[in-house]
Amino acid sequence: MRCPHCSSLQDKVIESRQNPSGTSIRRRRECLSCGYRYTSYERIEEKALKVIKRDGRREPFDLEKLERGLQKSLEKRSISQAVIDQIISETEDFAIMKAGNKREVSSRELGEKILSLLYEIDPIAYVRFASVYRMFEDIDQFIAEIEKLSHNR
Ligand SMILES: [Zn+2]
Are the CB atoms for 56 and 90 separated by under 8 Å? Predict the structure, then answer.
């Protein structure tokens, strides 16, 4: 896979992990040219989940976007990558269960699920995440705002 940092195509897989429901595999990769570490996800395409936004639009359920948003919003807290992995994995399982045969889950439900997971893991991170998240209508809008902030920095 192409390194997002230096565009080299040479990488090695450091770790592979399947989510508990067995519907996706997450791989941590390291670029052999520059050492940058990144994540790829593999899942069954025909089962792609959709997220229903507040305004009724549907978007693909994007775990990578979710992970970036979590990392950025929690970067000042000492939350390990393993914990973020756990949140992502449990959020995905929740989404699959919630979506059922319709393959759709609301953005609001996802946001509230992430909040409840954070609350158990790190109450301070929860407060921080919640205080920002609740200013927005849904998790996608929240992540979009965080990404905008980090681009302007
Ligand atoms: Zn690289």
Answer: no
- Going from the Cα of 16 to the center of ligand 1, the distance in angstroms, rounded, reads 19
The tens digit of pLDDT for each residue in 49-83 reads 899 988 889 988 888 888 887 887 777 777 788 88
d(CA 33, CA 9) in angstroms, rounded, equals 9
> What's the 71 CA to ligand 1 centre distance in angstroms?
20
The pLDDT confidence band at residue 37, using thresholds 50, 70 and 90, is: very high
Q: Tell me how far the alpha carbon of residue 12 lies from the centroid of ligand 1, in angstroms.
A: 11
What strands lie across the sheet with 104-106, from one edge to the other?
A: 58-60, 50-52, 104-106
User: What is residue 22's DSSP assignment?
Assistant: S
Burial class (CB in 10 A: 0-12, 13-18, 19+), 46: exposed
Sheet order of strands, 24-31 included: 11-18, 24-31, 37-43
